[in-house]
Amino acid sequence: MTSQQGSESSAASSQHDNGKFNRRPITPAAAQQKIAAYVQPATLEEVKLHEAGGRFLAQSVTAPHPYPHFRRSGMDGYALQAADLAQASSDHIVWLEVIDNIPCGYTPSHEITSGYAARIMTGAMVPDGADVVVMLEMTELRTEHGRTWVGIKRQVEQGKNITPIGLEVQEGDLLLQQGAQIGAGEISVLATFGVHTVPVYRKPRVAIFSTGTELLGVEEPIAPGKIRNSNSLMLAQQIAAAGGEPILLGAIEDKLELARTMMMNALEHYDLVVSSGGVSVGDYDIMGDLVRSGEVEMLFNKISMRPGSVTTGAVKDGKLLFALSGNPGACFVGCELLVRPTIRQMMGSQHDYLPQWQAELGREYVKINSFTRYVRGRLEMENGRLIAYPALLDESNVMVTIKDSDCLIVIPPTSEPLAAGTIVQILRLMDR
Ligand SMILES: Nc1nc2c(c(=O)[nH]1)N[C@H]1C(S)=C(S)[C@@H](COP(=O)(O)OP(=O)(O)OC[C@H]3O[C@@H](n4cnc5c(N)ncnc54)[C@H](O)[C@@H]3O)O[C@H]1N2
Ligand code: MOO
């Protein structure tokens, strides 16, 4: 904040000017490590399988039975003994008597011995004695006096069209590791093995509030000097996508007392607290003042990164507080780099940080900085090469290009512009 009426936080900030201007930056990796040391794992709950999507498994799951657990036909056809077709050819048809009919879901009523076959459908249980299923299209039928024979004119290799027991999974195999995120494939595994309620980590309840006397509700008409509070809702979406349960506490004016009440209430009632705004050095940067006041233990209040250099982390009674910048670009990046991993760690994820890839820079990047930059960018595959295009407008206070980005391009501290084609690290933005 720069200009406001009111004197409360102005007075407060002047008492703290020393601490305010003397911030010691730590690296983004050091900030992530500091936070990780305070993460408390969420408690467990059992959820119904159809509601488990996106959650993280709290216990590993092993197979209670093999899969498939019976020999399964892969085709509609006839189950028989391959050796019976040894003489079959285009000139010699082999006839086998059909003694059983096995639809899906039924068990065979006869063992197959030499000279006999069973009609069988895809997915049905192959009878004992049979070692091959011959497709319907390769057979013909003859019926006499109420008895039926199947005729086959070619040899078929033993085992053809039969899925053996345990082909996919043996009994006792590890199916899913603790910490695995439950998606469609995992749900399919759990359903197959009868796991109808799933032990998962509780979704952390993440309180969100914004500070700024300029902030209007989204539904309010625009007014001079005012802006709508987009950060709270942007954060709610990021937090939900990361797996947390966002709790929107609204916005407060830039008044230290309001911020104190909001922050203490949020820390008391929720698992994690995320605020936006008021962390810089201005007269009304109340979150910075609050964190420096000693009421919470400050972990850092400057990170050697842009955007989001003013991102602040603190802890109180074991609960983490992230005071993110009000600038939308910095707020977004701070959430992706710090809040998202925290939520995922709380939920037991093994993959907490954004995945890192390499790409070629799509156009030159000329800004020079002593801090690492996380530039929002767009990935394209061109002639088999992954190209990352930095957004044309990537300043911390730019909002509109966040939506166009699917990665953050990591520009290390550099004194030279980076040429197009330079190999850069990128962090993939997930869950969008
Ligand atoms: N003298 C200095 N000024 C600034 C410095 C500095 O080091 N010295 N740092 C700059 C940097 S870098 C950043 S980043 C910003 C950080 O500012 P704050 O985090 O304190 O955020 P505010 O001042 O409250 O707001 C910044 C900007 O964002 C808009 N905003 C705030 N909340 C929301 C919201 N909920 N939704 C949408 N937009 C929001 C606000 O109106 C401002 O335009 O400080 C620099 N200044
Ligand atoms: O901290 Mo600001 O977002 O670096 O630009």
UniProtKB/TrEMBL annotation:
SMART domains: MoCF_biosynth. CDD domains: MoeA. Residues 207-345 form the MoaB/Mog domain. The keyword Zinc-finger does not apply. Keywords: Magnesium, Metal-binding, Molybdenum, Molybdenum cofactor biosynthesis, Transferase. It catalyses: adenylyl-molybdopterin + molybdate = Mo-molybdopterin + AMP + H(+). Its cofactor is Mg(2+). Residues 1-24 are annotated as: Disordered. Its EC number is 2.10.1.1. Belongs to the MoeA family. Catalyzes the insertion of molybdate into adenylated molybdopterin with the concomitant release of AMP. This is Molybdopterin molybdenumtransferase. The lineage of its organism: Bacteria, Bacillati, Bacillota, Bacilli, Bacillales. The gene is glp.
